[in-house]
Amino acid sequence: MENKYGIVGVAHVGLPTNDLQKTVEFYKSLGFEVIMQSYNEKAGEKVNVIKLRKNN
User: Fold this and answer.
1) I want to staple 49 with a disulfide (CB 3.0 to 4.6 A). Which of 14, 36, 37, 55 is the partner?
2) What is the pLDDT of residue 56?
3) CA 39 to chain CA mean position, Å
4) What percent of the chain has pLDDT over 70?
């Protein structure tokens, strides 16, 4: 597939959810870990940043 937009990577993706804890547990089961927790005051929402754990 031709890359006509010049995109070479993805910095992050935001996924809205109705149940943050359930979503975090799902991603943990896939090997992700929470690296930051915050609160978006403007939106009134909790925010978690997750990343895929490296294999040891």
Assistant:
1) 36
2) 53
3) 14
4) 98
Closest to 20 in 3D by CA, of 6, 3, 39, 5: 39
- The first and second tokens of residue 19, run together, are 């149940």
pLDDT exceeds 80 at position 19: yes
Cβ atoms within 10 A of the Cβ of 50, count?
17
Question: Residue 55: pLDDT above 80?
Answer: no
Between CA 20 and CA 26 the distance in angstroms is: 10
Spatial distance between the Cα atoms of 15 and 45, rounded to a whole number of angstroms: 12
